[in-house]
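*** Protein under study ***
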Amino acid sequence: MTDGSGNTQAVFGRSVLDLDYEAMADRICARLREITARQLHRRGLVVAISGGIDSSVSCALAVRALGPERVFTLILPERDSSDDSAVRARLLAEHLGVLTETIDIAPALEAIGCYRARDASVRRALPAYGEGWKFKIVIDGGIQGRFNRFRLIACSPAGELVERDLALDDYLTIVAATNFKQRIRKTLEYFHADRLNYAVVGTPNRLEYDQGFFVKNGDGSADVKPIAHLYKSQVYGMARWLGLPERVCAAEPTTDTYSLAQGQDEFYFALPFRDMDLALWALNHGVPAGRLAQELDITPEQAQAVYDDIANKRRTTRYLHASPILVEPVAELAHA
């Protein structure tokens, strides 16, 4: 967005994320119909709904495009899921009139060692951790221009908060174990897609897609991703324009992965999503860090650190977007 003379900075502010929601919804729905029927040759769409804003808007757009009779939804809680997430998901399914099935994936996760491997790594950092404890991982360093550092925050059964540094091996094991959750969910989505001859909807917004905030062959796996071009703030705006239930529209973004409530900015992004949206837009449109700093009321050094953090995440997560690498090309399929 510019002032007509090509000067992006002259009009830079929160309004750059304003959107014509009706026109955008029409475009997305037209493409969903075309992709589903003509490109993928499928009869409908499968959407796993978590009660969060992204899956809710993706599901609502799928229904607007194809009708509720051709959208199948799944609610897939596990041991650490918030009860409120499932309540919001069921509320959404009822609001949209879609068929839904709820499957508790905790037994499968238990069987493949998800919780066991995770808890063993937590105990190496915090030997007292056990029954009744809750925990999350938080990130530190991005906005300060330092290397990102991951720390364990745990709450004892008595309510005492404890914070510990995590060794790299333990951090990686905890993340690898929790990634099972997204991969089991995706397995179920594709089971239902196969039996119905439907396609699977992926639900990342632009922040998540750009910054690699998804699990490869987990929530990153899909046949179509209808909102990957929308900033998170725009997804919230779309939810309200679509008339989704207030309880869904007002839901704050969480990872819903760890037993302690965890905001996405605690675990991955350098800023809360509304500020992160603006920072990403600014970087994409060549706005200097000093101008972003004025808008966000942070120092120019902090704004530059956010830009650097975005660039670093793009670099280190590029492999998540990549197709499998062939040792030698298969010429007959080179066009695919």
Notes: The mean pLDDT is 91. The chain has 14 helices and seven strands. The two ends are 35 Å apart (CA to CA). The beta strands are 45-48, 71-75, 99-102, 134-140, 149-155, 161-165, 199-200.
